[in-house]
Amino acid sequence: MNEFRQDIVSGEWVLFAPDRAKRGIRVLQCEELNRDKEKCPFEDLEGNGNTVLKTYDWDGWDGWFAKVINNKYPAVARNCIDEEAEIKKIGPFRSTEARGAHEVIVYGNHDKLMMEFDEKEMAQVFRIYKDRYEVITKECASEFILIFNNHGSKAGGSLYHPHSQIISTPVMPPDVEASVKGSERYYMEYKEKVYDAMIRYEMQEGKRIIAENDDFVAFCPFASKTPYEMRVFPKEDGAHFNDISENNIINLGDIVSKILKKMDKVLKRPDYNFFIHTSPLHRRWEKPEYFYTWHIEILPKISLVGGFEIGSGIYVNVIDPDDAARQMRDAEI
Asked: Alpha carbon of 20 to those of 24, 94, 326: distances in Å?
């Protein structure tokens, strides 16, 4: 029997229909992207008109590990910390200038994808994420900062060369606001963090756990919206990603490297989205550490959104998260 499951944070329903997988599943991959190193604009950043904001060298890497630039075609124009966004009324609508920050973190090796990074290289990635997050927090007036990585054209990527992006916005994204409000609502009703309840249940069940270490646990959520959706949570409470300690960064690099390699093995190098959910910057919520926990989501692009999803707002998932987790857990890397 197919089944509807509800996300306890957002309240969204997901329809699980495993029988539909019998039609066949085609893993979406980035075959359309140009892999030619000679034509890659990231091979000569300065020569292509980019100003490098910071270079990150690393002893374990041949050459520079990463360089940070402002996006050449930014979604938001970079602002200063004292340039607060003004919300204007236009008839029944509201509007504000698209200001914030839009940075690109370009990794030095054109031919080494993030799915191939080892635990030390992934830890270095998270150190850079933390550093850029704190720089943007100090330099730009923002409500929210999103750190993400798109791999492949089906995931929104336009270049093959491995890179991550950071965008800060002057408004609260609705999904983030719904997530924070849902977390607060659960805390007010049950007097505990919703993520603590979620993690406790997943670890008790064990069926959807992919990997864990002393500081983190990775699993396919009970109400996964998409096939092979994975989340990584810290075992130690924390609402803000940038509060992560150096010891935790090492273990975060370890677990994320493992599950990306497992994903690569099981799904044969899929397109995917990777992003960090962290507490908003503004002070609308006092002490979010009481009810919110930062975490990572990894979403392989296994299927496209269809008419039912668009028209109803209910996702259809054709892969049971128990099965997805088992395949990931059992994959030898």
From this structure: 8, 42, 19
Round to whole Å and give the CA distance between 77 and 93: 22
Number of domains in the chain: 1
Are 270 and 319 within 8 A, CB to CB? no
Residue of 276, 42, 279, 297 whose CA lies nearest to 157: 42
Nearest to 103 by CA among 62, 154, 69: 69
How large is the average pLDDT for residues 99-128? 95
The helix-helix angle for 246-267 and 119-139 (nearest 10°) equals 120
Structure token digits, residue 317: 């998932």
Looking at the whole model, is its pTM more than 0.70? yes
The token duo for 228 is 């092979």
Here the CATH number for the domain that contains residue 35 is 3.30.428.10
Per the DSSP assignment, residues forming a β-bridge with 150 are 273
Predicted pLDDT of residue 243: 93
Distance CA 136, CA 78 (A): 10
Do 265 and 330 meet the contact criterion of CB atoms below 8 Å apart? no
Q: Are 291 and 184 in contact (CB under 8 A)?
A: yes
Instruction: For 200-220, give the DSSP string.
Output: HHHHHH-TTEEEE-SSEEEE-
Do you know the residue count of the chain? 333
| Domain of residue 109, residue span | 3-330
Summary count for the chain: helices (H), strands (E): 6, 16
Lowest mean pLDDT among 86-90, 147-151, 205-209: 86-90
| Residue 320: C-alpha distances to residues 14, 26, 91, 210, 315 (Å) | 11, 17, 47, 14, 13
Tokens representing residue 200 in the block: 């406790």
